[in-house]
UniProtKB/TrEMBL annotation:
GO terms for biological process: blood coagulation. This is Tissue factor. It comes from Sander lucioperca (Pike-perch). Belongs to the tissue factor family. Keywords: Blood coagulation, Disulfide bond, Glycoprotein, Hemostasis, Lipoprotein, Membrane, Palmitate, Signal, Transmembrane, Transmembrane helix. The gene is f3a.
């Protein structure tokens, strides 16, 4: 007896032969938000499955990255051991609901990834405060949040790196190319070597000296500048406004000169006419 054939619309599709391997498998991670990416986009004939594992650990899968038609996989919540070295394999498999004659599917492995050492650190925010006597400028730095949670609380980078985390401040006078650098182990950074009344501009970035050189510095913050107590006229007003004011002043001076000249000419003419009309005296 032979097994009855399934109706066409219920039979799983079958694909023979091999599938293209994934290429450029790369980890992209910022503040422990870790995404695995690769190329190319799959056709309708195949899909991708991601398997990942720590050194000497078991292989795991993210349910959202099995027989998937996309080329990204979010593994942020799965890389729980931040000090472990992880490798991911991207397998090229039949699309969801289809079968294949292959026993082993082609795959491409990623480089090793260590969350603690390799995630990039995003730019911090900070507030700027100048003391009333203008002798001290204080920066209050906010630790960037991470994609990690513990006991229902979202962790920031200070929670993860603890005393390994420092902040590097780059600063200089506004409109000047000269820069100074100051490193602080705390989030409250006081600077007192500044010229009073001058405007200074500041940038802050995370600094983790225990990491490799290319991973020590985080993304630089947006620039913030203090106020200048003695700003130049070009800082208070735009160049256009200053130019218009100068033009009006010159025009006014020109009008005054013109009116003065006209009045002098008329006065001289009047005096001349008066002299010509006077009768001659008897001798």
């Amino acid at each position: 007896l032979t097994a009855p054939l399934l109706p066409y619309f219920t039979r799983p599709l079958s694909f023979a032969g091999s599938y293209p391997r994934a290429q450029n498998v790369t980890w992209k991670s910022t503040n422990f938000k870790t995404i695995l990416t690769w190329e190319p986009e799959p056709s309708a004939d195949y899909s991708y499955t991601v398997e990942f594992y720590a050194v000497n650990g078991d292989r795991q899968r993210n349910p959202h990255c099995i027989r998937s038609p996309v080329t990204v996989c979010d593994l942020s919540s799965y890389l729980t051991d931040l000090n472990a070295y992880y490798t991911a394999d991207v397998l090229s498999e039949p699309p969801l609901g289809a079968t294949s004659d292959l026993i082993e599917f082609p795959h491409t492995s990623s480089p090793r990834f260590n969350p603690y050492k390799d995630t990039d650190i995003g730019r911090p925010d900070f507030k700027l405060e100048v003391s009333e006597d203008k002798k001290k400028t204080t920066l209050y730095v906010t630790d960037p949040l991470t994609a990690l949670f513990k006991d229902g609380r979202q962790l920031n980078i200070r929670d993860v790196f603890s005393d390994q985390l420092q902040y590097k401040v780059t600063y200089g006078k506004n409109k000047s190319s000269g820069k100074k650098v100051y490193t602080s182990k705390t989030n409250v950074i006081e600077l007192s070597d500044l010229d009073r009344g001058q405007s200074y501009c500041f940038n802050v970035q995370a600094y983790i000296p225990s990491r490799s050189m290319d991973k020590q510095l985080g993304e630089m913050s947006q620039t913030q500048c203090s106020n200048d107590d003695n700003p130049s006229i070009f800082e208070v007003y735009s160049v256009g406004v200053v130019a218009a004011a100068i033009f009006l002043v010159l025009l006014l001076i020109g009008l005054v000169i013109a009116v003065t000249v006209v009045c002098c000419k008329r006065r001289k003419k009047a005096l001349k006419s008066g002299k010509e009309g006077m009768p001659l005296r008897d001798v």
